[in-house]
Write the structure tokens for this entry.
Amino acid sequence: MTCIERNMDQTSLPLVVVPNCVPSLSEPLMRCLDRFDGKARVQLYASPKDVTDPNELIARCKGADAVIVLGFHVTDEIFEALQPSVRCFAFGGTGIANYVNVPLAKERGVRVTNVRHYGDQSVAEHAVALMFELTKHTGRMNVQMHTSGWPGCDALQLGGRTLGIAGFGGIGRATARIAAGMGMHVLEWSRSSHASEAAAMGVTEVASLEELFDCSDVVSLHMTLSGETEGIVGKDLLARLRPGSMLINTARSQLVGSQALLERLRQGDISAGLDVFDVEPLPDDSPLRALPNVVITPHNAWRTDAASEGIVQQCVRSVLAWIDGEEFNVVV
């Protein structure tokens, strides 16, 4: 672990701490440090892997006025330990409901910001990559080929099949563009209508989430997590998936009832590509690891060079806006 400091001799300036930062984010952050000159002191803790121990994170944030949150949850324990010092949390993600107690932050008058549309293309590409792995099995064949043999297998064509996108924001639209380019028929449903935008892209808006599940060969989830969407995909919706269908989730695991999904997958007649989980890192004994009809990746959809740069730029801008008494990407 390396602690990189900037302007620490200027004690009258507010202190900004980045208590956890892996190389893919620390390098672009270090290129931004000049933007804090004359504005803030900075402590950036760079390490090769995420640090999640709450005591260590609290110790690193001691005396901070603002914290850039990358790769960890601000539990109530951490939040309370950092009060009344920390007045701004800048999150390096979009959906923050399962990363911080939003009502508590609002009650205490603590600003919480997020980042927006930083990884639309990156996450969309990953969602499509999961579809490809479920249909083409390239990763599985590659592992087998590096061992021995000639492990050919039958595959499925995605072109001509129907993709249903649940949540037609930036990521949903990016996914639709890629899928349409592959010759898929694309449907979309969102909690607010996007009929005109969808029509302009050659995408059909359906009236309900039930219709989306009924009519799709592949359902890809791109909704944000909130009180209204938590558990929105339950047993009844999962039962609507036809045999041979696929479910892709690169959004938030809490959108789907975990036990209901496990039971549906154990029937063996559908498959899933999952990048998000109720508990992360995924426990070694998770039953998902034993299911042959599931492709799982470690919450990696956002991790591209372009997305990392976007996260850093928006986090830095959010903190500087707070220091200057302005607003940028404010959630609370």
Observations:
- The chain is about 35% helix and 15% strand.
